[in-house]
Write the structure tokens for this entry.
Amino acid sequence: MIRVPSPAKLNLFLHITGRRENGYHELQSIFQLIDLCDWMEFYPTTSKKVLIDGLASVDLQNNLIYKAAQILKPFAQKQTGLKINIEKNIPMGAGLGGGSSNAATTLIVLNQIWQCGLKTEQLAQLGLQLGADVPIFVHGKNAWAEGVGEILSFIKLDQKKFIILKPDCFISTQLLFSQKTLTRDTKPTKFCAYQLKPSDFGNNFEHLARSLYPEVDEAMKYLDQFGTAKLTGTGACVFIEINEQMNIDEILKYSPCKSYLVNSLSESPLIHLEV
């Protein structure tokens, strides 16, 4: 049995800079890996089936873990059946990339178990078929992201702590993208500009999430008492960077919804995995 962590991420900002002819949106963002992790256990079996335990709410055919296994099968030199157990700590539909991370973890682990022999960049390209966030977790490094999220420039970020709140709602990414008031023409910028003044960088989905989901608005108003609250991805999670003046215990205690205290990661714990 192989037991490995599957980390979450925050979008430190998220700008929509344009729209492609195929309908996909161009964006700019910073992916920050954090130490909030799901845990995944891989049990090779003698059957040829891939079974997943711990995600009963997701149909197998739509499960990104299952899909990741399927796209790797043609490359397998030593294919076995699998039972995959998952301990979910990353909330679903939260903008923290839990599903994408689970898919990337599956690609990384099965590439070794099945002796596929694929390089990291090849795994990232396969992962892009599953979702725009999957490559960042395959590479396991913090990055400045462009394109639909697949063009990555790896960056060094300062070590930080964050408080994350998970409002009691499930945000529809499709609904947010369909809104006519979504800003789709934010001027492209550079990482050096972010480094000079990160407070100028926000999330184009924030006003929509706050207006369509009162729970998100409540969580952001709560965190805004202590600093500048931000939405991660298309939500629903919101977060704040911790400073020395904050009473962390009090903020967590009186949170209007589920809260998490997390640390930034300089790289994924999977980056040096050998099985």
